[in-house]
Amino acid sequence: MTSIRHNPERSTSPDDTYLDAARDAILAVGWSRTTLTDIARRAGVSRMTLYRRWPDTQTLLADLMTREWGHVVAAAGDNSDGDSLDRIARGIVATVQALRANALLRRIVDVDPEVLLPYLLDRRGRSQEMVADALAGLIAQGQRDKTIRNGDPVVLARSLVLACHGFTLSAHTMSDDSSRDADVSHLDSELDTLVRRYLAR
User: Fold this and answer.
1) In this structure, how many other beta carbons lie within 10 angstroms of the beta carbon of residue 201?
2) DSSP state of 4
3) Where exactly are the structural domains of the chain?
4) Residue 167 contacts residue 96 (beta carbons within 8 Å)
5) Angstrom distance (rounded) from CA 184 to CA 173
6) 148-191 pLDDT tens trace
């Protein structure tokens, strides 16, 4: 299984330093118990320094999620072998595997799962929009090179994102061992098949 971990080397960018501190806080105490005061202490700055950049914890943590999932998706989808359909299928499976193994997402799911509900039930988040837009571009490329069927690339991409929600967050529930560490490689193989058959001409 692909495992994409956060780069342990800290960035010199102030924003990244603050987001790193927020990430550390969530891993230590959970999302709901993380405060700007705690993040500021971990980052070695005053709370007002953070307030000048983010009006509240929610907006800071939203930026953290966007950065985290963006890094995971970029790393997992970084492949250039095969045609467009093959790259999309392998990239999707690798991304789902990496998200399931991601320490921050696992911590949120285990301790504060309600944080994810708005993005599953009410609205798209920036990360979902980013993934769908990237997928739509790849699908359009595959349509041009005749490896992917016709259809609105945006609709096809959003449909795949919807399918990936379940494989990312709920795959273990469909395993005989329903623990979060269950071996779901057989389901990942089915996800690969699902993507290929859905997009194939």
Assistant:
1) 10
2) -
3) 8-55, 66-199
4) yes
5) 10
6) 999 999 999 999 999 999 999 999 999 888 788 889 999 999 99
CATH architecture assigned to 8-55: Orthogonal Bundle (1.10)
Q: Which one-letter DSSP state was computed for residue 35?
A: -
| Close Cβ partners of 157 (under 8 Å, ≥ 6 residues apart) | 132, 133, 135, 136, 139
Task: Collect all residues with Cβ–Cβ distance below 8 Å to 172 and sequence separation of at least 6.
Answer: 178, 179, 180, 181, 182, 184
Using CA atoms, how far apart are residues 69 and 101, in angstroms rounded to an integer? 12
Decide: helix, strand or coil at residue 102: coil
Q: Are 32 and 10 in contact (CB under 8 A)?
A: no
Report the share of the chain in percent with pLDDT over 70.
94
Residues whose CB falls within 8 Å of the CB of residue 28, separated by 6 or more in sequence, listed in order = none
> Which two structure tokens, joined as six digits, stand for 68?
């985290």
What is the Cα–Cα distance from 43 to 5, expressed in whole angstroms?
Answer: 21
Confidence label for 9 from pLDDT (cuts 50, 70 and 90):
very low
**What CATH superfamily is the domain 66-199?**
Tetracycline Repressor, domain 2 (1.10.357.10)
